[in-house]
Amino acid sequence: MKRLVDIGILQSRSGAYAALSQTSRLGALQGVAEVNADPGLDLAFRVTERDPEGRLDRYAPLCRDILSRSDVQHIFGCVTSASRKEVIPELERFGGVLWYPVPYEGFEASEHVAYMHSCPNQHLLPLLDWALPALGRSAYLVGSNYIWGWEMAQIARAEISAASGRILGDRYLPVGETELDHILHEVRALRPDFILNSLIGESSYAFLARLRAGAGPEATTPVLSCNFTESELLAAGPAAEGLIAAGPWFEPGTARGGSFAEMARQSVHELARLLHGRPGAETLPLAELLRLARQGGLEPRLHPDHFHARQPVVIARLQDGRFRELQRLPAREADPYLTRRDGQRPALALKVVS
Fold it and tell me: What is the pTM of this model?
């Protein structure tokens, strides 16, 4: 008889980034089904779900509701960095852990968050290392007007400038905004070698559609992204064709979950590995759970100091509806505060603004 362990899922099923959150939710549920069906594991997961509906003000109360009204200690969820930061005080209050399955901008290391996707030294820096010699050294930056967009642009500015490149424009849109005329006019006039797109959800899809519909050189300008995956192909449509993305994993076939679904699925399996054979361990702090796993001969995915996963780096171009690999780099440890440059160049000089 398997013991039951309660877990939570906190993902939005509607709102401006629903394609991303729904994909992460389905990946987590797939992981739960696989764990529960695995006879080699002594536990099964029972899920408590809450839906924030894409509203930032609902994440903290719903996280608090899950942790205070159930036996849940581990929650799988959040897509935006703003929502992740909203729930961290509740996790601290109740001793919970958030398993975060999507890429983010770094400059954070909470003992209450398992960062299971990539951070900038695992996505943005390798992507720019590839793009600057391959595409050219003039860039246009566009992003959603919140933490992800700001920090991605700050890192990109420092990296491109250090490589003697030029930033021709740096613009932001509110999350969900689709009024793009001023940005499109600027791209058409400035003619950058490439665009780094850090928009999310509906804003990103509208930007790609309007860009590719143009009659000038902007229609063929390469677009780079660190957060676009197969889960958004239906929403973005054919305008996404040619987009160049960086991430730890791309679908080998025609599936449409992408790394958001896969990292959510892997997160559930990782928690199951850490809890297997350790009744009651689900109540332990994440650091203690990792320590016990290592003591027992298991090598966890997460670093014991900053709780980020080691990840491979894959750069791929969307071609005929599938991401085709351009470059694959060996798995690398996360460096969330960019304290090193993997032996290639000195660490970037960045100012963290809180």
Answer: 0.94
